[in-house]
Automatic annotation (TrEMBL):
UniProt keyword terms in alphabetical order: DNA-binding, Phosphoprotein
Domain HTH luxR-type: 138-203
GO biological process, one term: phosphorelay signal transduction system
PROSITE patterns hit by this protein: HTH_LUXR_1, HTH_LUXR_2, RESPONSE_REGULATORY
Signal peptide (UniProt feature, chain positions): none
Gene3D superfamilies: 3.40.50.2300
Modified residues (4-aspartylphosphate): 54
Protein name: Two component transcriptional regulator, LuxR family
Pfam annotation, one family: GerE
A Gene Ontology molecular function term of the record: DNA binding
Organism: Haliscomenobacter hydrossis (strain ATCC 27775 / DSM 1100 / LMG 10767 / O)
Domain Response regulatory: 3-119
Length: 207
């Protein structure tokens, strides 16, 4: 029996995965969480065998959470499950300690096989994930942003000051400044103009 835990910011996705595994008595779903902190708290109470981990989460991205999981719970196996099939996302997640990666269009047979392989200490990639890794061309690295960072970025693009953004989002100007610095670091740029230009090119914001 392999105990599974699901981390995804969309409750409907969680319910969909639970439905896939409902009739599989060898893969009981121990629990689920829609954000990173709730997941970490749950792991401190009861440890599953395999975590199905999405990339896009509201408080920290799945790559960062994977690193936290492997540091705090090294025996826990992480299987990435996402709509992202770019090589950069997959390799970054694997570098942080994940044992495999599948896309959300996976069927029940492949999902249970992936869970079984990962739980056994092996590496598993769905066909599309494997193709992305072995492909000759790779997509540009698009930074993974939290929901709050996306909100701040959109308001920066509208030309709002830190204070105006703070008032709009009901947070402090210092917090806005911290988000702004994180955004510059994630996009590897030195000024706001370059940040907005790159965000538009990557389709992160639309003006």
């Amino acid at each position: 029996m392999i105990k599974v835990f699901i981390v995804d910011d969309h409750p409907m996705v969680i319910e969909g995965i639970k439905a896939l595994l409902h009739d599989e008595e060898n893969y009981p779903v121990l629990g689920s969480a829609t954000d990173a902190q709730s997941a970490l708290q749950a792991f401190r109470q009861a440890l599953p065998d395999v975590v199905l981990l999405d990339i896009n989460l509201p408080d920290m991205n799945g790559i960062e959470l994977c690193e936290r999981i492997k540091k705090e719970f090294p025996i826990l196996k992480v299987l990435g499950i996402s709509t992202f099939k770019e090589r950069s996302y997959i390799t970054r997640l694997m570098e942080k300690g994940a044992s495999g990666y599948v896309l959300k269009n996976v069927d029940k047979e492949e999902l249970t096989e992936a869970i079984r392989q990962v739980a056994a200490g092996r590496i598993y990639f769905s066909m599309e994930a494997a193709a992305a890794i072995t492909g000759q061309s790779s997509s540009p690295v698009v930074p993974i942003l939290t929901s709050r960072e996306k909100e701040v970025l959109a308001l920066i693009a509208e030309g709002l000051t830190n204070k105006e953004i703070a008032d709009h989002l009901f947070i402090s100007p210092l917090t806005v400044d911290s988000h702004r610095k994180n955004l510059l670091a994630k996009f590897a740029v030195k000024n706001t103009a370059s940040l907005i230009k790159l965000a538009i090119e990557h389709g992160v914001i639309v003006l």
